[in-house]
Write the C-alpha cells for this entry.
Amino acid sequence: MPGKLLWKIDPGAIDRLAARLPLGSVVVSATNGKTTTAAMAASIIGGRFNLAHNRAGANLMSGVASTLIDARAAELGLFEVDEAALPEVVARLRPRAVCLGNLFRDQLDRYGELEHVAEGWRSAVQQLSATTALAVNGDDPQVGELARERPGAVVFGLDDPRVARPSLQHAADSKYCIRCGTPYEYAAAYVGHLGDYRCPACGHGRPPLDVAARELELNGLESVGFTLATKAGERRVELRVPGLYNVYNALAATSLALALGASLEEIVSGLKSFSAAFGRFERIAVGDRRVLMLLIKNPAGANEAVRTIVDGGAPAVAVVALNDAIADGRDVSWIWDVDFEPLLGRLERLVATGDRAAELALRFKYGGLDAGAIDVVPSLERALDRGLELVPPGGELVVLPTYTAMLALRKIVADRGFVRPYWERAA
Amino acid sequence: MKIVVAHLYPDFLNIYADRGNIAVLARRAAWRGHELEVRAVSVGEPVQAGAHDLLYVGGGQDREQALVAPDLVEKGQGVLESVAGGAVLLAVCGGYQLLGRSYRDLHGADLPGIGLFPFDTVAGETRMIGDVLLECELEPGDRRTLAGFENHAGRTRLDPGAQPLGRVVAGFGNDGESGWEGCRVGRAVGTYLHGPLLPRNPWFADWLLAQALAHRLGEAPQLDPLSDELELQAHAVSARRAESRGGRR
C-alpha cells in the first residue's frame, strides 16, 4: 500500500501532495455516517469538480495518502476521516472545510475512551486556520460545543419532535452536561444522545441551528423526505435511503456543499440522486431472492439499522454476522448494548454467523429468543445460503454484518456474479 | 424464591454491556423458578444494609467514575455491612476500582474508594487491552476457567495476603505483572473482565445465584443444570482468543 509507505518514510510528502490540489480539501468525520456523508457530498458536488475521494472507506492517514497519490488530476479532495486520525489529517491537509457529525462509543479497545477522541477533536478544531469553514452537528453536545469556540461555524440538526424517540436509548453516550455533569433534559431525542438537549442546572443547551431538517416523512425501508431549511431558503428533499440517521448525513453533506458554494438546487438534486454508500444499505439480487445488507458496527449505529428494518416490517428470518478482527473491534461486548429486542417480535429464525457466532447467539438467547430458533453457522458463506433457503422465492433476506463480515459477504455474492465489486463501480 | 438485586448506578456505570450480565442472572434464575428483582440504586439513594441479596456495580469511563465516586463513599457503610452480612457482590472494571481503597487517574486526581477490597489502583500511561483467560477456584477443589476481555489503564495492586479472583492464564490481569486478576472478599468479587462476562461463563453466573440464594436460605442450593451448549461454545472461542492474542506480561 503506497500511502502507508509514504506516510512512514516521508509524511511531509502528504502535506505537499495535498497542497497541490488547486481547490484544496474538505474533510468529514463522525463515529457513524462518515462514509455516507462523504458519498452524498460527492453526489452533490462531483459533477462540478474532479474529486480525490476515498470512497471505499480507507480513512486513516495512510488511506488519505493513497487517495492523494492515485488522484493526481483531481481538483478537490473529499475525505472521510477516522475519528482518531482527524487531528493529524487536519494538520497535514489544512482543509478548507471540516464537517463533524457525531461521537458515539465505538471500538473502545482501539480508540480508548470517548473523552479521549473528543479531546483530539477539540485540539484539531483549535488548530484550524481562520479561513477554514467548520460545520458541526449541534444535536450532539460534545460536537455542537465546537461551534461555540468558532464564530461563523455552521450548526446543523433535526427539528421535528414528532419523530423523536420516547426516551433516551441505552446506547446514549453524552448524557451528562459537558459543563456541570447534570443529566441533560431532552425536548427531543432522535438518535442515541443526538437531539434537542438542555441542562436544567447550568442551561447549557443545543446551539441555534443554521441548517435544519423539518417535517420529516419516514417511509419504511424505502425513503425519507424532509424540508431542508437553510439561510438561503427552504426546499423539500427526498432521499432514496431510509432512516433518521440518513437525514443527519444529508444535513452534514448539505453544510459541506454550502461551504463549497453549492446552490440549494444542486444540493436537492445531488441528494435525490444518491442511492447508497458501500455496504451501508444495499439491496442485492441473489437469484430469485434479494439480500438487504445493513452494516452494524457499534451500538448507536446498530440501533438505527434495527429501527430502520423494523419500520419496514419486522422480518421472520435474519442473518446477523459478528466478526472480531481489528476493524470490527476485538472486544465484542458492544453487542449487549444494542437494542436487538425490537427484531424479536416476528423473528422465527436467526442465523448467527461470523467468528463470534456463538457469542451473538447468546445475545439473542438472553434477549428472549428461544435457543431452538437460533442456527449457529460460523461460516459466512454457509450462513448466507442457510438464510436464503429460509426465505421464500421473491423474498428478501435481512443481513446485518459487522465491517469485515460485510466485506466478506459482498465478496461471496460478487464471486457468484450477483454484484459488481465496489472498486469497479467506484468510478 | 425472590432474589433482590441492587444495581448501582446503572445510568452512569454501563460502558461495557453491564446490562448483559444482569440479563443472564435474571434468565438463569427464572429458568430455575426464581425471580430476580433488580432495583436501580443511583446517586443520592442509600444502600440499606441487608436489603439486597446481590449488589452489582458496572464499569464506566473516567468521567462517569468521577461523577459517582463521591456518592459511592456515602453508600460505603451500607455496602460494607451488606457484604459482611453475606450479600453477594459483583463489581466490574470501573466499579471494581472504586471498591478498593483509592484510584488515582491519569491526570493525578485521586478518587476515594470505599475500601471493601484491599488494594490501591493507579492509572498508567498505557492501557491494558485484550482477551483474558483466568483459572479460578471459588470453591475448594473446584477449578474453573473464566474467559473475558479487559480494557483498563488502572494498575491494581493487591495487599499481601489478599485473595485474587483467579490466576492469569493469558492476558494482563490486575497490574500486568503479578499474574493475578480480580479480588475476592467473602461473597464479594471484583474483576476487570468486562462486558458479557456471565453469558460465556455460565458456571460463574450460577455460583453468584447460588450464593445469593444462600444469603436468603443460609446455605447454597444445588441449581438445576441447564442446556449450556451455546455458552460453552462461546467460552471456547473466547478462551482461544485469549491464548492466541491476549495481553502479554
Notes: The radius of gyration of chain B is 17 Å. The longest strand of chain B covers residues 119-139. Residues 2-245 of chain B form a domain with the Rossmann fold fold (CATH 3.40.50.880). Helices of chain B lie at 18-30, 62-84, 94-98, 202-217, 229-245.
